[in-house]
UniProtKB/TrEMBL annotation:
InterPro entries: Glyco_trans_2-like, Glycosyltransferase_2, Nucleotide-diphossugar_trans. Its main location: membrane. This is Glycosyltransferase. It comes from the Bacteria. Residues 6-172 form the Glycosyltransferase 2-like domain. It comes from Chryseobacterium aquaeductus. It holds the Pfam family Glycos_transf_2. The chain crosses the membrane at residues 237-258, 270-295. It is a multi-pass membrane protein.
């Protein structure tokens, strides 16, 4: 028995769900395969998302709702979906497909990915070729963002690779062995290994309705997360700069001694002193901050709290 679980995270997506659900059924019925389940994760939405999902579920036994007790974020929504599948599947063979609820991940593309899985591919990733939603400024910013990120982090985080991907059972089991509290799917997949991945290109349309939930603060958090969770490079950089500062101050000291006692032209300069002090003090603050980021994560990780709270709502007929 083969089955595909589509995990769809939705946070305030009331206007998109009906269209998405119809589109998915249409596309999935075009291709042949045994069974599928639409696992909608309601990530603490404040609009009618949950009610609409419940209404859809009444006449549709393919739908399972995972209702998060509050908004835990997209990464946790995906994790909740994955854990549900890992605990509830009864199939020998299954795959998990992650997609967004705003129709930026087209149902037709999802069907294509499932077909590829049937052809034997175990990990299918997607790449956006042309995102109509984002302007030139965003693209330049994005490029710099990813360059910096990939320089600082030990795992490669590819550009333009959305969370629209299909994982065979094998990968689901592997990913589930990573039980860190701080989660980032792209990074975790890189840890597992992407060599065997099939990459399909697709054109991402504009979000069908509603607004994007990613703002500057979230992108900042994502950047810090992806660097700190997968690498200790920032700490190493701090040490390196510390060495450099130490070495240059010894040189400066030697130079000052030489000027005062041998050349008899003592160096004065309050401003130089002040600026050097400010520079190094702020450097210390910066690196205390970086250190704090790591320690904070240790603090959260050792508490080992549950990642989220939710209830699973099934169609009982
Ligand atoms: N999402 C979520 N929880 C959140 C934020 C977003 O489940 O806290 C879902 C959202 O409903 C959507 C997907 O994650 O289905 C991607 O979010 P969005 O479309 O806002 O991101 P963008 O496409 O703009 O990067
Ligand atoms: Mg979107």
């Amino acid at each position: 028995m083969k089955k595909v679980y589509l995990i769809i995270s939705a946070y305030n997506e009331e206007e998109n769900l009906v269209v998405l659900n119809t589109g998915l059924h249409e596309e999935l019925n075009k291709i042949y395969f045994e069974d599928y389940e639409l696992v909608f994760v309601n990530d603490g939405s404040r609009d009618q998302t949950l009610q609409i999902l419940k209404d859809l579920q009444k006449s549709d036994s393919h739908i399972t709702i995972i209702n998060q007790s509050k908004n835990f974020g997209h990464e946790m929504a995906m994790t909740a979906g994955l854990n549900y599948v890992a605990q509830h599947n009864k199939e020998n063979e299954f795959a998990v497909l992650f997609m967004d609820a705003d129709l930026q991940h087209p149902p037709a593309m999802a069907a294509k990915m499932i077909q590829k899985w049937h052809e034997g591919y175990k990990l299918i990733l997607t790449q956006r070729v042309d995102n109509e939603d984002k302007g030139l400024k965003y693209r330049i910013l994005g490029n710099t963002y990813y360059k910096l990120l990939n320089f600082l982090s030990d795992v490669k985080i590819p550009r333009n690779m959305p969370d629209f991907r299909l994982l065979d059972k094998k990968y689901v089991i592997w990913i589930n062995q990573l039980n860190e509290t701080d989660r980032m799917f792209r990074g975790m997949l890189s840890l597992v290994g992407l060599q065997d991945a099939l990459i399909l290109e697709f054109k991402a349309p504009k979000r069908f309705a509603g607004t994007s939930k990613y703002n500057f603060l979230k992108l900042y958090k994502l950047a810090i997360d992806s660097v700190i969770q997968f690498s200790v490079k920032p700490l190493r950089l701090a040490t390196l700069l510390g060495f450099f500062g130490c070495f240059s101050s010894i040189l400066f000291l030697a130079f000052s001694i030489y000027q005062s006692y041998i050349n008899h032209e003592p160096k004065t300069g309050f401003l130089t002193l002040l600026s050097v002090m400010i520079f190094f003090c702020s450097l210390i603050m910066l690196f205390l901050g970086i250190l704090g980021e790591y320690i904070g994560r240790i603090h959260i990780e050792v508490k080992n709290r549950p990642l989220y709270f939710n209830e699973i709502i099934k169609n009982e007929d």
